[in-house]
DNA sequence: AACGGTCACAACCGCAAGCAC
DNA sequence: CGTGCTTGCGGTTGTGACCGT
């Protein structure tokens, strides 16, 4: 029992120590304190949370709570089939590097993906039918990528027209994002630096996915093609063709919005 | 209704890397 | 260069909900 543990922690020692951190489920009051702390001081310096926010939680616990539950950019709800296929693909590539996998799924946490994998795939992994399913999914995505490459070629041929189109899409995205931000009022004051960081992360994600789909061994490979692919990826998102990466596109658009904030 | 199994999720723990001093 | 602190990561555990028997 959580509370039993807490009480034992408090009563087991003759003298109440300052480090008698609270454990177990977070209360809404604690959540409020933590959110307020992050709003005022930003992420990081977790060990000072207890002192500055009056929380009887250690830094690790605070960080975990924030990262896995309170962060405003978290995506709620079930893992979609598209996300599932990405998880399968990335797990096949990276193994249990959950944080790496999570970086390619904006709004999802490593903990969430880890839990999902354990409950959905760990037991099924040995099943041959699932292996066939995975192979089929891989083939499908490869075909999708080839289609997109063709589309990319056409784009290059009509570059001037596409640039105009891109501008229109970006403006739509900015307007949608601004509207979205007004609906997230408590976090609308997010700093520009945070947005820049988010954009950097987003670029890494897209870079990785590109290299993955293109068969490049290293996620760090950067090329003109990658940049083009980034644009293509975002365009699909703005078109609304992909629910999976809508969060990624939002994050990407932060770079466009930041100068206006 | 009671029980056991499974699932989904939150949270904790130990370890290691990064960093400042 | 060594040390201590902070942070991040992956593994594991605990708990409640749900479902079938």
Automatic annotation (TrEMBL):
Q: Which InterPro entries match?
A: EOBI/EOBII-like_plant, Homeodomain-like_sf, Myb_dom, SANT/Myb
Pfam families named among the record's database cross-references: Myb_DNA-binding (PF00249)
Q: What is its main location?
A: nucleus
- Coiled-coil annotated residue ranges, if any: 136-166
- According to its UniProt record, where is this protein located? Nucleus
Q: Which UniProt keywords apply?
A: Coiled coil, DNA-binding, Nucleus, Repeat, Transcription, Transcription regulation
GO MF annotation terms: DNA-binding transcription factor activity; sequence-specific DNA binding
Where does the HTH myb-type domain start and stop, copy by copy? 22-70, 71-125
PROSITE patterns, alphabetically?
HTH_MYB, MYB_LIKE
Which CDD domains does the protein's record reference?
Answer: SANT
Which PANTHER family has this protein been placed in? MYB DOMAIN PROTEIN 79 (PTHR45675:SF97), MYB TRANSCRIPTION FACTOR-RELATED-RELATED (PTHR45675)
Could you tell me what this protein is called? Uncharacterized protein
Question: What species is given as this protein's source?
Answer: Sphenostylis stenocarpa
What does UniProt list as this organism's lineage?
Eukaryota, Viridiplantae, Streptophyta, Embryophyta, Tracheophyta
């Amino acid at each position: 029992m959580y509370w039993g543990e807490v009480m034992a922690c408090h009563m087991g020692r003759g003298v109440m120590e300052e480090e008698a951190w609270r454990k177990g489920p977070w209360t809404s009051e604690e959540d409020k304190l933590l959110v307020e702390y992050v709003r005022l001081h930003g992420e990081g310096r977790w060990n000072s949370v207890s002192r500055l926010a009056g929380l009887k939680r250690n830094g690790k616990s605070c960080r975990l709570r924030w990262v896995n539950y309170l962060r405003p950019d978290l995506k709620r709800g079930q893992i979609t089939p598209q996300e599932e296929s990405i998880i399968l693909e990335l797990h096949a590539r990276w193994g249990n590097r959950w944080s790496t996998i999570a970086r390619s799924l904006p709004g999802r946490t490593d903990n969430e993906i880890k839990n999902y994998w354990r409950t959905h795939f760990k037991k099924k992994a040995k099943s041959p039918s699932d292996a066939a399913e995975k192979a089929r999914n891989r083939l499908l995505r490869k075909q999708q990528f080839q289609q997109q490459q063709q589309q990319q070629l056409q784009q290059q041929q009509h570059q001037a027209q596409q640039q105009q189109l891109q501008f229109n899409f970006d403006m739509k995205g900015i307007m949608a994002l601004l509207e979205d931000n007004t609906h997230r009022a408590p976090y609308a004051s997010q700093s520009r630096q945070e947005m820049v960081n988010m954009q950097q992360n987003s670029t890494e994600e897209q870079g990785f996915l590109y290299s993955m789909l293109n068969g490049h061994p290293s996620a760090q490979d950067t090329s003109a093609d990658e940049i083009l692919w980034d644009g293509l990826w975002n365009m699909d998102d703005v078109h609304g063709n992909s629910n999976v990466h809508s969060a990624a596109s939002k994050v990407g658009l932060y770079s466009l919005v930041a100068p206006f904030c």
